[in-house]
Amino acid sequence: MTGSAADADGLRAYPTADGSFSLESERFGEPFHNSAGALNEARAKFSRPAELNRFCAADRLRILDVCVGLGYNTAVILENLPEPTPAVQWWGLELDRRPLDLALEQPTFRGLWRADVLERLEGIQANDGWSDPPNIGHQLWGDARTALARIPDQQRFDLILQDAFSPQRCPELWTEEFLAGLSARLAPGGRLLTYSRSAAVRASLQRAGLQLYSLLPAPGERVGWSSGTMAVQPGGSCTAEGPGWRPFSPMEKEHLFTRAAVPFRDPDGEASSSEILEKRVLEQQACGLEPTNAWQRRWRGDAALQSR
Ligand SMILES: C[S@@+](CC[C@H](N)C(=O)[O-])C[C@H]1O[C@@H](n2cnc3c(N)ncnc32)[C@H](O)[C@@H]1O
Asked: Domain MnmC-like methyltransferase: where (predicted)?
């Protein structure tokens, strides 16, 4: 596949390692998916640890997709719903319509999904969701910080799929305040899933009262010290180890006491990314926490250490 067919202003198409179509953003300076491939990543980090069989014969499954992009995460969840299928109440947050438009133009992307799943993606594109009671879908376009507040107060979620660009590129969607807002939307036992292993993100989720687990790598992904985070609202049952996750290692626990754990902050919900990053550097300089490179040195030799 060549990139040119799907190139749009600031978005460049590329095939990922598993052959699935993805994009790279010039504005954010980052690809939408990791080297394992878009489809592999969506399955390993979102649908597998969601343990969808828990919702077999349940009345409903409530999902919030943060940064819908090309729609992979929602699509893998819909593809893997258990039978008998629960009613799906779905909300999506996304700034830019073009990633989904570009994906739906690609025959290879369309060919990945069952007809009913493709119909849902087309519903997001054309109708901002769907209304097919008891299944409902609401796509909110715009900055996820303000869109989150437009979801009715009483709405809670069993699954939140947090797939923003990385904290250094898109810190506004990884702040203490935004993550607390997402955490507050989790139903008892609800799970927030993300590819991020950032100590700042994890520490914010922990302060929001969630229990943390480490995600396992997707097939084909380079094995490092962690491949993401599952954060669980107390009140349900979640085993220490499960399909796609394990407990934190001692190294990961210590990471939360280093400077890397200083949170991204955005108390008014409207700071620019550079303002958030600059303030965090100042807070890191003033904090008494261990420098992250001392932690790195201590654990050097452990699985391909890389701090983010
Ligand atoms: C890593 S991609 C998401 C990939 C997506 N989950 C998928 O499966 O294709 C990040 C997405 O965040 C969106 N985005 C960036 N800033 C945003 C913001 N402030 N609010 C909402 N979406 C944002 C980008 O347009 C992009 O689609």
From this structure: 141-213
Domain ranges of the chain: 12-298
15 band by pLDDT with thresholds 50, 70 and 90:
confident
The predicted structure's pLDDT at residue 244: 95
Output the ligand 1 site: residues, CB below 6 A: 32, 42, 67-70, 72-73, 93-96, 99, 143-144, 163-165, 170, 172-173
pLDDT single digits (tens) 186-197: 999 999 999 999
Tell me the per-residue pLDDT of 220-246, one tens digit each, with 9 for 90 and over. Answer: 888 889 999 999 999 988 999 999 999
- Out of 64, 95, 106, 177, mutate this one to test ligand 1's pocket (max ligand atoms within 8 Å of CB): namely 95
CB-CB contact of 288 with 258 (8 Å): no
| Distance, first Cα to last Cα, the chain | 31
Q: Which fold has domain 12-298?
A: Rossmann fold (3.40.50)
